[in-house]
Design goal:
This protein is 76% helix and 0% strand. Helix 2 (51-58) packs across helix 11 (235-265), helix 3 (63-93) crosses helix 9 and helix 9 packs antiparallel against helix 11. By secondary structure, the chain is an all-alpha fold. It is globular and about 70 Å long.
């Protein structure tokens, strides 16, 4: 290894460390503040305490938005998995003009700012006469979670041999049973991966949800912003820490399940 290569390796390592430290610092500060005893955001904390987690457990205004966000995320993810899988199969197996344009169009919600999408859907729903809060939220969250499912399942389907379904049918299975026995197990890692990202994207969404909630139906991100405006104390840091743990837990569990699936296939 030449001197230039060694220097380049050191510089790459330093740059990677600085980047990771820059990205992780807000998370570390949030977690540290949540365990402080001070009533304001301060570091280092005068002492360590669980008072803000205890206050979080006693809060009556927090839990309804939590349950609403979880319910909304589960429903939108389930619908996106079904619709996204059907879209991916149609795009992969179909032969029509503009197929690549449709694939790009389905990913467009990830390319546009959330506020732009929220305003566009708000105007569209009003023009269609849709006023129901829950139905509006579910439709909006399906739109923003669908790209994760379509792209992930589309990539997985491109590696799948569809002649296996025909082989299963020659062995006596009906087409739906052949799909359930052959196709669905092969796509299980894609379902799990896309479902995780869709669930987390729905749970953490604010710029679109803000247009469709009301005084009686609020999601967790909106309630958190309202809490910061009304009583900014480290309780919000405790909520953020729990959301960080939720994201880590979902990703770890998903990684283990995918690993177990691959081992079972071997």
């Amino acid at each position: 290894m030449t001197t230039v290569e060694k220097v380049a390796g050191w510089l790459t390592g330093i740059l990677a460390f600085v980047t990771v430290a820059f990205l992780m610092t807000p998370l570390v500060v949030t977690v540290a503040v949540s365990f402080g005893s001070s009533a304001v955001f301060t570091l280092p904390a005068p002492s360590w305490s669980l008072r803000w987690y205890e206050a979080l457990m006693r809060s009556r205004d927090l839990w309804p938005p939590v349950f609403a966000s979880v319910k909304l995320a589960v429903l939108s993810t389930a619908i996106a998995l079904v619709l996204g899988t059907l879209c991916a199969i149609g795009l992969l197996r179909g032969r029509f003009r503009g197929r690549e344009a449709v694939v790009t169009f389905l990913v467009s919600p990830l390319m546009l700012p959330g506020l732009v999408i929220g305003i566009a859907m708000l105007e569209s729903f009003r023009a269609a006469g849709l006023r129901d809060v829950w139905l509006s939220l579910i439709l909006a969250h399906v739109v923003i979670t669908l790209p994760y499912v379509v792209r992930t399942v589309f990539a997985s389907l491109s590696l799948f041999d569809f002649t296996l379904i025909d082989a299963a049918r020659t062995l006596g299975l009906t087409y739906p049973k052949a799909v359930m026995k052959v196709l669905v197990p092969s796509l299980a890692p894609a379902f799990l991966t896309s479902g995780m990202f869709a669930f987390l994207a729905s749970m953490d969404n604010y710029p679109i949800s803000i247009f469709f909630t009301d005084a009686w139906t609020k999601t967790l991100p909106i309630q958190m912003l309202q809490y910061v405006e009304e009583s900014p104390d480290p309780t919000i840091a405790a909520i953020s820490t729990l959301l960080i743990l939720l994201s880590i837990g979902v990703l770890v569990i998903g990684d283990r399940l995918v690993g177990l699936r691959r081992m079972a296939d071997i």
